[in-house]
Design a protein that fits this description.
The complex is a heterodimer of chains A (176) and B (138). In chain A, 73% of the residues lie in helices and 0% in strands. By secondary structure, chain A is an all-alpha fold. Chain A folds into two domains: 1-85, Rna Polymerase Sigma Factor, Chain: A, CATH 1.10.1740; 97-176, Orthogonal Bundle (Arc Repressor Mutant, subunit A). The N and C termini of chain A lie far apart (53 Å). Chain B has 138 residues and is mainly α. Chain B has helices at 2-18, 27-102, 106-137. The chains are: A mainly alpha (176), B mainly alpha (138). The A-B interface holds A 3, 14-16, 18-19, 22-23, 32, 35-36, 39-40, 43-44, 90-92, 105, 108-109, 112-113, 127-128, 131-132, 159, 162-163, 166, 173-174, 176 and B 3, 7-8, 10-12, 14-19, 21-26, 29-30, 32-33, 36-37, 40-41.
Chain lengths: 176, 138
């Protein structure tokens, strides 16, 4: 992939990759840094992108890898300076919904966000890839370089934890 | 069972809804990335130029070293042939002188001198040639 092709790729997928970084980092500043690092690394390794069938999944895998590294490095730092969560506008309800639905949606989204925050990165990343990017099990497995069975089990674990979280969080549709 | 599966479906829908939000890349982020990419490209071009220059220099150095080696070998061969011809001259000259004293050794002396002349001139021309090439190479 030459520079012109890379620029085309960037124009085509920048929004998806940026939002993926945003969902991973849950913090505007961290997401911007992650996005820049990811794109610069992708630019450096653009020669490898030629041989891939899904260049977007390659770049998302870079973002996921870089995020995991930064989480590892910032393990102790996070205790001293906790992350600032995404602003509430990010998962704001649709303006088409009525105020009650809006409120319910906001409550649900806040609960999902909290539930996602409790997940380990190895569970959260496949979950984001599956629900945000609509990646299949095989695509996630290829991007993260793990077996398909592992992806399946991690998605199952993630859903199970989230369901329990929503049940406890008082979201009435999830209560027995 | 039905409650469980409906809950799973609901969670699926809610998660898709949750992740449906898409934000545009802020212009500042785009500008920063663009600047960083330009800097990277400039750096890559600079590195490439430096590498090409270094490679060319290496090729030049290799040629120079190769030429030097050949010159050393030629000089060495010339010196060896000079020494060898001197030895041959002494041997043949002595033999010729002794032969001349006994019977008709004169032609052998002439042959010996001729042989020495041939070898020494070739060695000398080899030395001159190597010197000439050496000057050009250096």
């Amino acid at each position: 992939m030459d520079v012109t092709e890379f620029e085309k790729f960037l124009t085509l997928y920048e929004k998806d990759i940026y939002n993926f970084c945003l969902y991973l980092a849950r913090n505007q500043q961290a997401a911007e840094d992650l996005y820049q690092e990811t794109m610069l690394f992708a630019f450096e390794t653009r020669a490898d992108i030629d041989n891939l069938q899904n260049p977007k999944s390659y770049v998302l895998a870079i973002a996921a890898g870089k995020w995991k590294n930064s989480v590892r490095k910032a393990g102790r730092r996070a205790e001293i300076a906790p992350e600032i969560p995404l602003d509430s506008a990010f998962n704001a309800a649709s303006p088409a919904e009525n105020p009650t639905q809006n409120l319910e949606r906001q409550e649900l989204n806040a609960c999902i966000q909290k539930g996602l925050d409790t997940l380990k990165e190895k569970v959260r990343i496949p979950l984001i890839m599956h629900y945000y990017e609509d990646f299949s099990l095989e695509e996630i497995a290829a991007a993260l370089d793990i077996p398909t069975g592992t992806v399946k089990s991690r998605l199952h674990t993630g859903r199970k934890i989230l369901k329990k979280f929503l049940e406890k969080g008082g979201i009435h549709e999830y209560q027995e | 069972m039905n409650i469980k599966s409906s809950k799973t479906e609901k969670l699926d829908c809610d998660l898709r809804e949750f992740f449906s939000e898409r934000r545009d890349v802020p212009p500042q982020v785009k500008a920063n990335l663009h600047a960083a990419l330009l800097a990277k490209r400039a750096k890559a071009a600079e590195t490439e130029t430096a590498e090409v220059a270094e490679n060319q220099q290496n090729i030049g150095n290799f040629g120079h070293h190769k030429m030097e080696t050949w010159l050393y070998l030629m000089g060495f061969a010339a010196a060896v042939s000079l020494i060898f011809s001197a030895v041959v001259l002494v041997v043949i000259g002595t033999w010729g002188f002794l032969g001349m004293l006994s019977f008709g050794g004169f032609p052998i002396v002439i042959l010996g001198i001729g042989y020495y002349w041939l070898l020494s001139s070739s060695a000398a021309s080899g030395l001159l040639f190597s010197q000439k090439l050496g000057k050009r190479a250096i």
